[in-house]
Amino acid sequence: MTVETESLSEAIDRKAIVTGLQVETKEEVFAKLAELLHQQGNVDSVSEFIDAIHEREAQGATGIGGHVAIPHGRSDTVKRNAIAIAILDHEIPWESLDDTGAKVVALFAVGADDEGSQQHLKLLSQFARKLAKDDVTQALLKAQTVDDVVEALNK
Length: 155
What we know:
Elements: H1 8-11, E1 12-21, H2 26-39, H3 46-57, E2 63-65, E3 68-69, E4 72-75, E5 82-92, E6 102-111, H4 114-131, H5 134-142, H6 146-153
Parallel strand pairs: 1-5, 3-6, 4-6
Antiparallel strand pairs: 2-3, 5-6
Helix pairs in contact: 2-3, 5-6
Keywords: Phosphoprotein, Phosphotransferase system, Sugar transport, Transferase, Transport
Protein name: PTS mannose transporter subunit IIAB
Pfam families: PTS_EIIA_2 (PF00359)
């Protein structure tokens, strides 16, 4: 059973945010963010969680456009729904709705039970509403520190 988080701010732990991440591939982003989620106790197995991310990635693009990607993995290894965020130091290739790569990646860890899935939809909706604001997306793209990311998401 997944431990429920009530709000977007509860699902995002400052310790699961990284800025200036130097990577070249989605694999490297997944590995870093999955490890951060594991370190915070949200995910039991990094490898099982990454497998779940790949299963989802095979179903369709997770780049929503504007250099933002919101991949997720749904798995029994997720103990608490959570979000890890990476601000990359440069854009990397990513399948997206507008054919742009990704510079901001928000990885959702989702419990496999119905409760986890329902909560995921709620958190995804809250996150999407934030990203619908141009000033939030622009602030995330320019974020240099964890404080910058938190401030952007609190707009």
